Amino acid sequence: MLKLKAETPEDIAVFSSYLQDAALKVEDFAYIPSQNRFALVCNRFMWEHDGDKNFRTRTGLHFNLIGACNVRNIPLQAKTQVLELLALHAVAQDSRVLINLSFAGGGDIRLEAELIDAYLEDIGQPWETKNRPDHDGDA
């Protein structure tokens, strides 16, 4: 069970490796401007699990100190549409940090933060899945 905190772009890269191929619905993420918070809940593929079986687990991710959230190519009105998270990336720029969540199909969410203050935590028991994400070009 994961419980991680991120404070640097390198930490966000670690989050990205754990969240690659996470599945979530559009209704599973929210930007709460009054709390300067962005949060999501997803079904994380457990890449760290060695063995013949594949597992997913419910995982929460939230970012604090978020001043802006921009969504591109994600149909916000399609609440039950499933999204596949490909990667997270963070870069410091001037006096802010830009954090990008990239999804399959070209959608992304860009967060602007004062600094990185993020948390990733498994919030459920893992379950077995027969479906393993398949990436083109993988051996």
Query: What's the story with the biggest beta sheet?
Result: 6 strands, antiparallel
Unreliable stretches (pLDDT < 50, length at least 5) are none
Number of domains: 1
Overall 3D form: globular
Terminal Cα span: 28 Å
SSE series: EHEEEEEEEEEE
SS elements, strand count: 11
Output the structural class: mainly beta
**Rg over C-alpha atoms, rounded to the nearest angstrom:** 15 Å
Beta-strand proportion = over 45%
Tally of helical runs: 1
Mean pLDDT: 94
Question: Would you kindly provide a written description of the structure presented here, covering whatever features stand out?
Answer:
With 139 residues, the protein is mainly β. It has one domain. 8% of the residues lie in helices and 52% in strands. The chain contains one helix and eleven strands; from the N terminus they run βαββββββββββ. Strands 1, 3, 4, 5, 10 and 11 form a six-stranded antiparallel sheet that branches. The protein has a five-stranded antiparallel sheet with strand order 2-7-8-9-6. A hairpin with a 2-residue loop joins strand 7 (82-93) and strand 8. It is globular and about 45 Å long. The two termini are 28 Å apart.
Secondary-structure map:
Layout: E1 3-6, H1 9-19, E2 22-25, E3 29-32, E4 37-45, E5 54-63, E6 66-72, E7 82-93, E8 96-103, E9 108-113, E10 118-122, E11 127-129
Antiparallel strand pairs: 1-10, 2-7, 3-4, 4-5, 5-10, 5-11, 6-9, 7-8, 8-9
